[in-house]
Amino acid sequence: MADAREPIVSIRNLFKSYRRGSQIIPVLEDITFDIAEGDFLALMGPSGSGKSTLLNLLAGIDKADSGSIRVGGVEITTLDETELARWRAINVGFIFQFYNLIPVLTAFENVELPLLLTRLSKKERRTHAETALRVVGLADRMDHYPAQLSGGQQQRVAIARAVVTDPAILVADEPTGDLDRQSAAEILNLMERLNRESGKTIIMVTHDPRAAEKAHSIRHLDKGVLTDADR
User: Fold this and answer.
1) Is the pLDDT of residue 229 over 90?
2) Is 213 domain-assigned?
3) Is the pLDDT of residue 135 over 60?
4) Residue 142's closest CA among 194, 128, 189?
5) Which one has a higher pLDDT value, 125 or 227?
6) Are strands 74-75 and 92-95 parallel, antiparallel or unpaired?
7) How much is the pLDDT for 228?
8) pTM
9) Which residues does 208 contact at the CB level (< 8 Å), separation at least 6?
10) How far apart (Å, rounded) are the C-alpha atoms in residues 184 and 109?
11) Which CATH number characterizes residue 142's domain?
């Protein structure tokens, strides 16, 4: 864990582009900023501005062309694929727009899934998964399958799965994008509570100004360039 006085995420001179045929399409250009431990950051910007790419880079899903990304004191750009997968499993919790739950597994089994990569015993895994489901208010739904749950409940299961390993950071890509207004508000309140009560560092990509209002700080991307923070 990083020293409390150090930023939990430190990005320096980050560049990322994609190749499309013979064309090179720049996506992120010279991105430099820090994220404090315990922050709740919203990344905003128009479609194609590079928000999800930036999120994927700092979560170790994608590789930068050049630049530095330090998370919890670890320079993740120098890790090979095996090291990166191991680092990601321990340090990053993912929350996606479309939940990404496995339909043939119960809520409990979906939440337990990341723990199968750990050395925890079966009993310890059960305790951790039940605790995570209790935190998101679904202790009474742990034996239900995703199809038996509402969209908001499925996203709560996804959040429980994201926090069950006690990761250093939570990354959320449009977490309310597939939800009605009431369910979206409940999910945002839950994320705000995880940030406030558990001290979770949350980095959220969103188009929704209402979602961004829950964040402590807002950064805008426009055509791959980071603009000044709103707050």
Assistant:
1) no
2) yes
3) yes
4) 128
5) 125
6) unpaired
7) 66
8) 0.88
9) 176, 177, 184
10) 24
11) 3.40.50.300
